[in-house]
Amino acid sequence: MSSPSVQRRSDYTPPAFYVDAVSLDIVLADHATRVSAVLQVRRTTPNTAHMTLHGHPSVVLEGVTLNGTPWHDFEHTDDRLLIRNCPDTFELVITTTISPADNTAFEGLYKSAGAFCTQCEAEGFRRIVFYPDRPDVLARFTTRITAPKKEYPLLLSNGNRVKEEDLGGGVHRVTWVDPVPKPSYLFALVAGDFDCLRDYFVTASGKEVALELYVDRGMLHRAHHAMESLKHAMRWDETRFSLEYDLGIYMIVAVDFFNMGAMENKGLNIFNAKYVLADRETATDQDFMNIEAVIGHEYFHNWTGNRITCRDWFELSLKEGLTVFRDQEFSADRGSRAVHRIKNVRMIRSHQFREDAGPMAHPIRPEEVIEMSNFYTVTIYEKGAEVIRMIHTLLGENRFQEGMQTYVRRHDGHAVTCEDFIAAMEAGSGEDLTQFRRWYSQAGTPEVRASYEWDRAQKTLRLTLCQKTPPTADKSPKKPLHIPVNTALFSKTGERIPLVRAQTRQNEVLSLQQATQTWVFEEVDTAPVVSLFRGFSAPVRLIHPLETEDLHVLILHEEDDFSRWDAWQMLLKKEIVAMVSAMQGGKTVQVPPSVCEIAAALVEDQSLDPAFVAEMLTLPAESELAGWFDTVPVEAIHHVRQALRDGVAHGCASVFSARYAALHQDSFEMTTAAMAQRSLRNTLLGYLALVPSGSDQVAQHFAMATSMTDSIGALEAAIFGGCSCRDRLLEEFAHRWSKDGLVMDKWFSLQAVAPAMDTLKRVKELMNHPTFDHTNPNRVRSLIGAFTARNHRCFHAEDGTGYRFLREQIELLNSRNPQVASQLIDPLLQFARYDLPRRTCMVEQLHTLRAMPDISSDIYEKVHKALKSSADS
Ligand code: B3K
Ligand code: ZN
Prior knowledge:
There is one protein chain. The chain is α+β, with helices and mostly antiparallel strands. Among the domains are: 7-192, Immunoglobulin-like (Sandwich); 308-440, Neutral Protease Domain 2 (Neutral Protease, domain 2); 447-544, Sandwich (Immunoglobulin-like). The protein has 26 helices and 35 strands. A hairpin with a 2-residue loop joins β7 (74-77) and β8 (80-83). α8 (548-557) packs antiparallel against α9 and α23 packs parallel to α25 (836-850). The chain is globular. The two termini are 27 Å apart. Zinc ion binds next to α3. This is Aminopeptidase N. GO terms for molecular function: alanyl aminopeptidase activity; metallopeptidase activity; zinc ion binding. Keywords: Aminopeptidase, Hydrolase, Metal-binding, Metalloprotease, Protease, Zinc. Belongs to the peptidase M1 family.
């Protein structure tokens, strides 16, 4: 095949023709759905005679009429329809036929467990009908859906239901009008038979909004948490951002087959059922929190994404970075801020830093894209959110909100750019963000090196910070960035020392703007401990030569819980790196007593949030540890991590056991406090499983479990503790839940991440389990994805079996569902960081993939970039 083409941000041109309104008439049928689109078109560029519409090879063109007469002056290629010699304004009717039942890619209109549903972002609408499928064409949509009433009693689309008709012969038709102009990627349609949970919300200005949550029949009892989450999100957006919902109805539909988490279609969100359905028997506390976050995220898009959308897909972070920042703040305001921050930072450090260091490195506003679906990345989303958070840190909450109000006032109803956002933030706050803009155009993780000198006689502290961003695969320029450094000083006994310069107390946020910059603080009359990047105030790698004793001071006395955790991470890193080199030097590995002492002290401290203590006890994953080494010592990091867990478990057994017992809950509650207790109790169980009699305790925990959180806590402890009860518990669990795919996903994942060397064999057996379904993305991710992305040691087995397995799975998925194939491939792209035999084998798999005759653009882009980076190096 010819290489898929590259799109460039610099090639943007405004649309030559605008669609003011579109009326869709869709007659649903599995293999021959007929779509007719009536477009009211207006020329916007005087000298352009021809109008371009996007399409897809799977769409059959039936006919074109222009101003009521059949039109033959057009060119039709696989993915384009060029209407030639158009008048200035006209009505264009395009009729197509598509086959939703054969759509295994789950883009456009497809069938999910007997229901029709759509996924149009980024470029799925063109798989339904030819259309200017670009986010800067905003039209008013009217949608008429016709289908058999018995199978599809519910026919949903965006906006308001204006008409219902019985056409006789068991067929009905529903018409929807969406009053708000929108780009085609926000179009949605659902047809099926669902149960509906109804509620309502009264907005701050007193408008009543109908809330409708559609779930598979019989699942209503699992829909309440999602509904409550929606109402919390709506209220929160009013109070924190002064943003109110605009329409009279908000619908959410949960479907079983979905490529990602959820989709913010205007007024009709479509969700992966995983992010809707929950009750305490089937969902863990973490699932409950994830649901609230995703429901919030999609709801917040109504302003940041839908009413103000992106000019083109290079600007994706405009809506995603900002909306992730908003959902993170929502979760932080609703629960424990520090714990949420820790989880976000773990994600950035393990996934985003890796992306920045790999062949797919890109700035949060990319310059070049082959397949847009590949750019829904941790960089665009999570680093994008960190960039918004830095603006928030520099401006403070009040000025940030003034900037947001300016953004909304200026751009409501438009398709805009990241530059428009920054300009609005500047105008609203009065802050100059000229240099800050570089975060949008430079890829890579900056390294900040800290050094300092305390002058006892002068009572001054000279703090010097140097920044440098290493080169990245995309070769974007690297200039000094504007980096906010939230800073605090503590005495060696833990008292806070104020930041004073020129005899004035200083703000805690330093602006690092040059390659090297020095600050001199006065009135520092005792040797200080310097705490930098408090709250992870910038997405950088900090190189900070803190002595172990200083780290102890921060772990015990930092006022910011996130920074306590971060100091603990620095200490663990020091110890783990030393243990790895001891192991590689053939020495015995010793767990330093101070690690056990700190762990025990944390667990004994009743004043701490138990969820925070649980985070402190959770060691970095092997995949994160891998990022600490130039050449990843696969086996050593596995054994060292294991030794550390064993050492802590044995060293702290009595303290852990006592606290475990004290955390017992007599009754189940779904409060933040109760969830925090369960989190710590299950984390402690993971350690107790490693000491003698651990297996009995785990089995008892499983038997007494009154929630999925505790059942999974026990299974996880049994698997990672190698407990003798493991197989029995797994069997009991499967026996109870084998009919429930979402619950069984947890069971698949746990077995896939098991560190035992025969795990791959087990994964292959599980692929034949009756509940496994290779066409369902959730099943694929929970079994195959968990093994390849989260079982670092087994995936990187020296004999290459893990690599070959992933290559085979990608071959199978490449044409069936390229997006899911592309989600899975990332661990194979990391070859540059592994030893020669592993690297050679990984590169071989990539070559095999590149030779596939029907390679999708999704896989092509990643494989091509990875092999290019290997040739360049
Ligand atoms: N905007 C969607 C993601 C669409 C992904 C398309 N491949 C969900 C979200 O970020 O809210
Ligand atoms: Zn989003």
